[in-house]
Amino acid sequence: MITTNVTERPILYSTEMVLGILDERKTKTRRTKGLEYINNAPDRWVIKPSLELGKTNYTFEDIFGLEKFVPKCPYGKVGDILWVRETWNNWGAKEVPFVYRATDLRSCGHNWKPSIHMPKKAARIWLQITDLRVEHLHDISEHDAITEGIEIKKDCDGDIYKDYEAKTEVSDFGDTYYTNPVLSFKSLWVKINGKESWISNPWVWVIKFKVLSTTGKPESLEHA
């Protein structure tokens, strides 16, 4: 049930990760926004979570005991709503006012509009935050790597996971794959954020969510 004290915020997703949500592979996302200050020197800080009035707050303390920093997640709190900005375009038809690069082949040839410019009225994917925590990027588990929406295939030895940095096609699937999901996630992170971002091992928000709708704003929110 959606309560009236939730906030709706936009969140950017790449086309590949939109497909991860639509395919029900992606239920978590890791973000550094709002943590830029401590990520100037991520190893300089330790974290001390505290539970206060039912809300989880995180206090970062300088390892030298000189400073404290309490970040605020720019994506909201547990229960808040995220509407997904993805690569899109206007279509113009009354029945189909918008098209989306992730799924709409009929619009091939159009000049796609960047996700950052998507208006709220064009958002088809709506999410609700169900859990929120902070951790170092390298602390990701194999299970969490899978829930980040990486592409999974089956081969004779079990599950294999896409290498997003690969530039050559050497497998029967047309891509290269890892047997370790964390390495797949690492390649995805590097592709999106760059190698230096991975090496620095920044602090990240770990946002777990559930999908409320993939066909537009849910009626429950329209009347909330």
Protein model, in words:
By secondary structure, this protein is an alpha+beta fold. It has a domain at 8-139 and 202-217. It contains five helices and 13 strands. The protein has helices at 15-22, 142-147, 181-193, 195-199, 219-222; strands spanning 8-12, 28-31, 45-52, 55-62, 68-69, 81-85, 88-90, 98-100, 126-136, 152-155, 158-162, 177-178, 203-213. The protein has a five-stranded mixed beta sheet with strand order 1-6-9-13-2, with no helix packed on it. A three-stranded antiparallel beta sheet has the order 3-4-5, with no helix packed on it. It has a three-stranded antiparallel beta sheet with strand order 10-11-12, with helices on one face. A hairpin with a 2-residue loop joins strand 10 and strand 11. The longest helix has 13 residues, at 181-193. The chain is globular.
Helix fraction by DSSP (H/I, runs of at least 4) = 10-25%
Terminal-residue CA separation: 10 Å
Instruction: Report the mean per-residue pLDDT as an integer.
Output: 90
Structural class: alpha+beta
Q: Which of globular, elongated, flat, extended, rod-shaped describes the shape?
A: globular
Compact overview of the structure:
The protein is α+β, with helices and mostly antiparallel strands. The protein is 16% helix and 32% strand.
